[in-house]
């Protein structure tokens, strides 16, 4: 399908058919495509937990407040933010960038470019994503306030705002996954109605993680799982050309 067809075909399906099963490898392939989604500073602070075994259905449906999108799904993917892994991800990216620069940059620029990456991933990223009872966020806000008196700066650096950055990147991956599923002819439903504490306990997730969304996967049964026509605010209300 062309992108326009994919976007029109993709709907939040809330009742799935049990007539045909989805090979788990197909969903895994779509998740591999989801990793190609854009992510802030390439930090990739996400994790995709693919639940295949039907044993998860009862407990997950309960945590999702009894939604039929959960109870009738064949499989589920829990999109998790992993801000707790910021140090290891930054270290991984720094090592990659050193090799990347050596392989692809002119030799006379490699030392300078590696030095820039060492500051960016070795110091700046760990500083931005670190959390300590909101205190580090307050310090970062004060620093950028002073810097902002003299030049443009990124001002969204509080702990809450950095948490939002991580969720935005994870949501982009989730959207990419749903489009990849639609391209294969499968259906999804992104769910935000769930008890996050129960889900984290069920999946034994560590502290410092958040549930971004849970996406149920299956195949629609005609139009039974689609609640009527698609509704969107008139384009003129959301679009402005200057």
Fold and architecture overview:
Helices cover 51% and strands 14% of the residues. The protein has helices at 3-9, 24-34, 56-63, 68-71, 86-104, 107-129, 135-148, 159-183, 196-203, 235-238, and strands spanning 16-17, 46-51, 75-82, 187-191, 209-220. Strands 1, 2, 3, 4 and 5 form a five-stranded antiparallel β-sheet that branches. The chain has 242 residues and is an alpha+beta fold. It has two domains: 3-84 and 161-228, NADH Oxidase; 86-155, no CATH class. The protein is globular, with a radius of gyration of 21 Å. It contains ten helices and five strands. The mean pLDDT is 97.
Features:
242 residues; alpha+beta; NADH Oxidase; 2 domains; 10 helices; globular
Rg measurement, Å: 21 Å
Second CATH tier, the architecture of the largest domain: 3-Layer(aba) Sandwich
Order of helices and strands: HEHEHHEHHHHEHEH
Largest sheet: 5 strands, antiparallel
Q: How many distinct folded domains?
A: 2
Average of the residue pLDDT scores? 97
The level of helicity is: 40-55%
**What is the CA-CA span between the terminal residues?**
33 Å
Helical segment count? 10
State the total count of DSSP E strands: 5
Note the beta-strand portion. 5-15%
Are there runs of 5+ residues with pLDDT below 50, and where? none
Q: What would you give as the CATH superfamily of the largest domain?
A: NADH Oxidase
